[in-house]
Amino acid sequence: GIHAAVNRQTYGEEGAYFIEEALSVFDALRLYTTLASEIGQTTDRTGKIKVGYEADFTVLDQNPFKVNRQDLAQIQAKLTIVNGNIVYERA
Question: What predicted TM-score, i.e. pTM, was given to this entire model?
Answer without folding.
Answer: 0.81
